[in-house]
Amino acid sequence: MTAAPGDARADRVAARATGVGVGLLPFMLAWLVGVRVTEQLWGPPSSAVVAMAIAVATGIVVSVVAGRRLVHRQLRRHTAVVADECDRRPPLTSTR
After folding, report:
1. What percent of the chain has pLDDT over 90?
2. Does residue 87 lie in a domain region?
3. How far apart are CA 49 and CA 59, in angstroms?
4. pLDDT of residue 1
5. Does pLDDT of 3 surpass 60?
6. Range of the domain at 40
7. Rounded Cα–Cα distance for residues 48 and 41 (Å)
8. Could you give the CA distance from residue 46 to residue 14 in angstroms, rounded to a whole number?
9. Which of 3, 16, 23, 93 is deepest in the core (most CB within 10 A)?
10. Residue 96 resides in a domain
11. 75 within some domain
């Protein structure tokens, strides 16, 4: 099954996948910086766990925010396309 242009469901799925991809960059940066900072504060075993928790939380927040923003943008665009198509249709007439 292929997605037709302007397919709202396909646009939502693509927006969420893009949001996940966008969330990976803050995850990696938070992990790298977090490990260095937490190693200075705590010892090696607990610093990695704390840094991973911070990185996961940061990645999830950024993914959700980016995905929601893209979904809303796609829905507005899809709504505008549907409204334009409805405006172009000839008015319904009674056949009585």
Report:
1. 0
2. no
3. 15
4. 43
5. no
6. 9-80
7. 11
8. 37
9. 23
10. no
11. yes
Residue with tokens 């409805």: 86
Q: What is the DSSP letter of 6?
A: T
Prediction pTM value: 0.60
94 assigned to some structural domain: no
Residue appearing with tokens 């056949």: 95
What is the total count of domains within the chain? Answer: 1
Q: Which long-range contacts (CB under 8 A, 24 or more apart) does 6-10 make?
A: 6/78, 6/81, 8/74, 8/75, 8/78
Say what the pLDDT of residue 79 is. Answer: 67
Task: Give the tens place of pLDDT for each residue, 55-83.
Answer: 889 888 888 888 788 777 766 766 666 55
**For residue 2, what is the DSSP state?**
-
Average pLDDT, the chain: 76
DSSP conformation letters of 15-62: HHHHHHHHHHHHHHHHHHHHHHHHHHHS-HHHHHHHHHHHHHHHHHHH
Q: Which residue has the tokens 């409204």?
A: 83
